[in-house]
Amino acid sequence: MEHAISMTGVEKHYQDFKLDNLSFTLPAGTIMGLIGENGAGKSTTIKLILDLISRDKGEVQVLGQPNRALPKPLREHIGVVLEECTFPDTLTAHHINKILKNIFQTWNEDQFHAYIQRFQVPAQKKVKELSRGMKMKLSIAAALSHDSKLLILDEATSGLDPIVRDEMLDVFLDFMKDETHSILMSSHILSDLEKVSDYIAFMHRGKLLFCEEKDALLDRYGVLKCAKEDLDRLNPSIIKGVRQHQFGAEALVDRDALKGTWTVERATIEDIMIFFAKENGR
Ligand SMILES: Nc1ncnc2c1ncn2[C@@H]1O[C@H](COP(=O)(O)OP(=O)(O)OP(=O)(O)O)[C@@H](O)[C@H]1O
User: If DSSP states are collapsed to H, E and C, what string results for 209-224?
Assistant: First the structure.
């Protein structure tokens, strides 16, 4: 299996939103960070991949099979964590273990308990008695305990404090030591995605603006700080976005195409996202 996920020409229409001709692939063995502003279409994309909502057009393959016809054994290899904890309020981690043991052939009870302990989730407390972060950790523990080969995480770390988030990133990187494993994760915490992702897919107003290797993006783009009038001396085709302020301007530029002696600073994924969003009509 070459691709963990492949979307081709996918469309989804809501009354005032259109996910437009979405095509990308997540190569097996890699992590893709899905970024974009509120309402850009990230969760819609994830729901379409999981076939939780119907698409209007296009094809979706997951783990090498059409997503609508995934056999149950293959479904078991997909671990999902959505923004909201989906476990019923009255269950404890012990109950959840018993239930999931009957649902997943691949359920690994010892692994689940080990994660619960490692993540310090109180196993006797009911879901409704857990903090938001604890609920997320419970969901992540479950997603990692049924021999998942593909993890799909929608804002799964947003409720976690920086220390726990860092620990979770390590858990995800551990998961990736098996080179058949893959992760698609959406997050607004772009520094996290910058740390772990191999690819960045940027959605903007229902369109995919780019889906590229993270290192290539970081190599290609830089932030040029200059006077406003300096911008006129640059070839417009190398400027990917501009921010003007009281004392001058900042431009996201294509480093290789920039001629002359300009000082260009490293761009973060957050810089790249903000400049691209402004340029494409924020
Ligand atoms: N069931 C629905 N019915 C109508 N519109 C919907 C529905 N679900 C989502 N939308 C719309 O689709 C658009 C994209 O929403 P989506 O949840 O995919 O965005 P997102 O990128 O995940 O945003 P956020 O970062 O805020 O979570 C929004 O305009 C939203 O209002």
Answer: EEEEEHHHHHHHEEEE
Query: Is any atom of ligand 1 closer than 6 Å to the C-beta of 40?
Result: yes
Residues 178 and 263 in one domain: no
194 plus 274 within the same structural domain: no
Please check whether residues 239 and 200 belong to one and the same domain. Answer: no
Tell whether 117 and 27 lie within a shared domain.
yes
Question: What are the DSSP calls for 54-85, one per residue?
Answer: --SEEEEEETTEEGGG--HHHHTTEEEE-SS-
CA of 44 to the centre of ligand 1 (A): 6
Question: What residue numbers bound the domain in which 94 lies?
Answer: 3-212
Residue at 269: amino acid letter: I
Atom 28, ligand 1: residue with shortest CA distance = 39
Look up residue 16 and give its two tokens: 């005032």
Shared domain check, 32 and 138: yes
ipTM above 0.90, yes or no: yes
**Residues 123 and 262 placed together within one structural domain of the fold:** no
- What confidence score (pLDDT) does residue 226 get? 86
Residue 157 or 33, more confident: 33
Residue to mutate (ligand 1; options 7, 10, 17, 157; most atoms within 8 A of CB): 17
- Helix ranges, the chain (H): 42-49, 72-75, 93-103, 109-118, 132-143, 162-175, 190-196, 214-220, 269-279
Identity of residue 79: G
CATH number for position 123: 3.40.50.300
Entry pTM: 0.94
Cα separation, 14 vs 176, whole angstroms? 35
Claim to verify: residue 203 and residue 247 sit in the same structural domain: no
List, for residues 181-224, the tens digit of each pLDDT value: 999 999 999 999 999 999 999 999 999 999 999 999 999 999 99
